[in-house]
Amino acid sequence: MKHVLDITDLSVEEINSLIDTAIDIINNKEKYQEVCKHKKLATLFFEPSTRTRLSFEAAMLELGGSVIGFSSASSSSSSKGESVQDTVKVVGYYADIIAMRHPKEGAPMAATAVSDVPIINAGDGGHHHPTQTLADLLTIHREKGHFDNLTVGFCGDLKFGRTVHSLVNALSRYTGIKLVFISPDELKIPQYIKTDIIEKNGMPYVETQTMESVMPELDILYMTRVQGERFFNEADYIRLRDYYILTPDKLENAKKDLCIMHPLPRVNEIARSIDSDPRACYFKQVENGKFMRMALIMKLLGGI
Amino acid sequence: MTIDQIDNGIVLDHIKAGNAMAIYRYLKLDELDCTVAVIKNVKSVKMGKKDIIKIDSLIDINLDVLGFFDENITVNIIRDGKKVDKKHVSLPEKIINIVKCKNPRCITSTEQELDQVFRLTDPEKRVYRCMYCDSSNNFLP
């Protein structure tokens, strides 16, 4: 039985196969309508999340399966003091697969020790969020047609932004990727990401505080939100949340085929006026996320 | 200064000077009833100075703890006053319930019945990471 806690739990071949399946789903939706009939997905969301939970639920429903679960810790037995492991053990008797989000890092890893059904990490604090990375990879694949030889800029909260860490990790397995990190000093990419992933794989990278200077080089610009829930200090959050706002004037020197991504939710880091720009891909990511979750659920349930 | 020879017990030798008390704590030697001698700053040809711990009983020693601390420590087993075995320690691949993760965002900070597991991820730099949250060398005794 396979669990997916981190994007590196999937090999490049497995990711390619998921992308192929997702594209086949996009082109032949009816073929997959009953693939997971009589199967149940449990969405255990110990932390609120609209899009990820609904994406998982929509994915399972479109595969013909059904969904059970809860959407906050207060509506689960964890509010009575039940451990994550006990909750997962119990749910394993009701469901065939679990998608789990938890505010604490490593909670899904703890769950796998006792689970009899596959667990998908739907986000554990600032740690991993592999299905967002799958959504990002499908988006890059559909927009660019390949993963190699791209200059990828990451902007905003690169310290706590788990989607950034996961995507950097995923891209480290392709060749010719150049990374550009745009962030204030306080939210720079963590040293361990640099030493363990970027430098280890010999990926060229630059760090800067200004978006404009690097914009012409970028094939992909991955914007992130400064997440209040990751800060222990409210004053730091307020000071940093509006540090980078992408506006049309900042895109003047950008490539015509730039792909602007964002894991959403957006607050104000991308101006609404950019939504109509053909380079805006962040809503496409949402849809791609559902297709990749469908492919992943099928794979973990033995369907592909 | 003279420390008595031991007849049946364990001598932890070549401890880096200054580390003996930490090892004493990690091995929970304070819980033993037998005689335990912690000898600090002993002159050493090889090391300049070193610490030694003598335990007057043949207890089970957690070699992973010693390897985690210092790969140069040697463990001498004494029977009937003679050294019958000499063990070298190495960096353990995994350490369980020896240190605690210090990351306040880690699941182990709230679910304290979970085993505290650290995995060796970079033997050259002696980097251990929490199995749950991947924090590195970020632990409490």
Walk me through the structure:
The complex is a heterodimer of chains A (304) and B (141). Chain A has 9 helices and 9 strands. Chain A has 304 residues and is α/β, with parallel strands linked by helices. Chain A has 2 domains: 7-128 and 287-300, 3-Layer(aba) Sandwich (Rossmann fold), CATH 3.40.50.1370; 131-285, Rossmann fold (3-Layer(aba) Sandwich), CATH 3.40.50. In chain A, the strands form 2 sheets. A 5-stranded parallel beta sheet of chain A has the order 7-6-5-8-9. A 4-stranded parallel beta sheet of chain A has the order 2-1-3-4. In chain A, helix 2 (50-62) crosses helix 9, helix 5 packs across helix 6 (162-171) and helix 5 (130-144) packs across helix 9 (282-300). With 141 residues, chain B is mainly β. Chain B has 2 domains: 9-88, Aspartate carbamoyltransferase regulatory subunit, N-terminal domain (Alpha-Beta Plaits), CATH 3.30.70.140; 94-140, SH3 type barrels (Roll), CATH 2.30.30.20. Helix content of chain B is 10%, strand content 39%. Chain B has 2 helices and 10 strands; from the N terminus they run βαββαβββββββ. Chain B has a 5-stranded antiparallel beta sheet with strand order 2-3-1-4-5, with helices on one face. Chain B has a 3-stranded antiparallel beta sheet with strand order 6-8-9, with helices on one face. A two-stranded antiparallel sheet of chain B has the order 7-10. Chain B is elongated. The two termini of chain B are 31 Å apart.
Output the keywords.
heterodimer; A: alpha/beta; Rossmann fold; 2 domains; five-stranded parallel sheet; 9 helices; B: 141 residues; mainly beta; Alpha-Beta Plaits; SH3 type barrels; five-stranded antiparallel sheet; 10% helix; 39% strand
Task: Write down the Rg of chain A.
Answer: 19 Å
Instruction: Find the CATH topology of the largest domain in chain B.
Output: Alpha-Beta Plaits
Instruction: Tell me the count of domains of chain A.
Output: 2
Could you give the order of the helices and strands of chain B? Answer: EHEEHEEEEEEE
CATH homologous superfamily title of the largest domain in chain B? Aspartate carbamoyltransferase regulatory subunit, N-terminal domain
CATH superfamily of the largest domain in chain A: Aspartate/ornithine carbamoyltransferase
DSSP E strands of chain B, number: 10
The whole-angstrom Rg of chain B is 17 Å
Strand order of the largest sheet of chain B: 2-3-1-4-5
Total helical segments of chain B? 2
Strand order of the largest sheet of chain A: 7-6-5-8-9
Q: How many distinct folded domains of chain B?
A: 2
Mean pLDDT of chain B: 90
Spatial gap, N to C terminus of chain A? 14 Å
Give the overall shape of chain B, derived from the CA principal axes. Answer: elongated
Task: Tell me the distance between the termini of chain B.
Answer: 31 Å
Query: Biggest sheet of chain A: strands, sense, closure?
Result: 5 strands, parallel
Residues in helices of chain A, as a percent range: 25-40%
